Amino acid sequence: MFPENQNQHRVSQVYLKQFGYEIEGKWWVSVYRLGHTSTENLLVSIFTADFNIFDAPYGDIEFRRNFEIQCSKVETHYPVIISNLINQKQLTAKNIEVLCHFIASLLCRSIPFTSFIEMILRDKDARKRFVDEISMFTESKQVLEEVLNIVPVDLQLNTILGSITAHLVEVLRNFNFLVIEKPTSIQWMTTDNPVLVDKKGNFEWLLSPDTEIYLPLSGDFCLFGFHDQATDKANSFRALKENRVNKISLEQFEELQKKVRENLSKYLVMPIYLEDSPIEFPA
Predict the structure, then answer these.
(1) Which of 274, 282, 220 is nearest to 32 (CA)?
(2) Which of 101, 169, 239, 275 would be 74's cystine partner, CB 3.0–4.6 Å?
(3) pLDDT tens for residues 93-117?
(4) Interhelix angle for 153-172 vs 111-121, to 10°?
(5) Percentage helix, strand, coil, to 5, in the chain?
């Protein structure tokens, strides 16, 4: 049985626990909210959550909730990935497959990415190119076009979330991945927009071969993804060992940490407990 109203998270609870802390059986995260003057401590169970935000508009409750169901299935494998990185210092083929699904699901739940898709769906020419792209690996182009011609524009995103996610998974399967370990006692931060997509100047595709991807996996580890056919291969992280945990310099860590921090939508998530306290900004 599925509840009529379900609290659905833009950022996975399983993921957030890697950056949070537990008190009396409840998980919390210390965050800074953009535009506020103090840090806050929020329950993971309600952080970035709202009712039914990913439900499809039509069908029975199980069909309407399929996107959320599939996301939950992927998330159950996430702790195994972190365990492998801690104990084996590597990513297995199964870990990488799970991460392809996980990255795709995080993108399709994030406000910046979904807002971009909604903008595309409101533009006739952009929508045509978009449908061509997300049907690249399937035979569903005609079905997608028919659906988008019938469904009101305000309902289109949730109607095709599954198709967008499936396309991103297929693209990500062609990327290479490695893991970067923090070189200091300071841990990786994350945000409410945890997947950092650096398009490297190529905006023709959702994820082109030029794209480089970063995702803090926990306070200790950050994922890096890249494509062999990129035009720009200057990034020194490309020379690190694939599917392994790698060390970087403190300077590289600080530079990447800054990129992660600036990728936020509304919230910066600190990987340590901080009392609610005011923040002083430079004059």
Answers:
(1) 274
(2) 101
(3) 999 999 999 999 999 999 999 999 9
(4) 120
(5) 40, 20, 40
Tokens representing 29 are 């995260």
Alpha carbons 209 and 56: distance in angstroms, whole number: 31
Enter the pTM of the model. Answer: 0.95
Residue-wise pLDDT tens digits, 155-166 = 999 999 999 999
pLDDT digits (tens, 9 = 90+) for 64-97: 999 999 999 999 999 999 999 999 999 999 999 9
- What is the CB neighbour count within 10 angstroms for residue 37? 11
Q: What is the largest CA-CA distance in the chain?
A: 57
DSSP secondary structure code for residue 216 in this structure: E
How many CB atoms lie under 10 A from the CB of residue 153?
11
Residues pairing with 12 in the sheet: none
- Write the secondary structure of 152-164 as one string of H (helix), E (strand) and C (coil): CHHHHHHHHHHHH
The C-alpha R_g of the chain, in whole angstroms, comes to 19
Of 103, 102, 92, 63, nearest to 211 by C-alpha is 103
pLDDT, residue 200, reads: 96
Between CA 119 and CA 127, with CA 121 as vertex, the angle to 5 degrees is 120
> What angle is formed at CA 105 by the lines to CA 146 and CA 132, rounded to 5 degrees?
35
Using alpha carbons, list the distances in angstroms from residue 23 to 43, 48, 76, 270: 10, 20, 22, 17
Q: Are 36 and 267 in contact (CB under 8 A)?
A: no
Name the 3-class secondary structure at 176: strand
Structure letter (DSSP) for residue 90: B
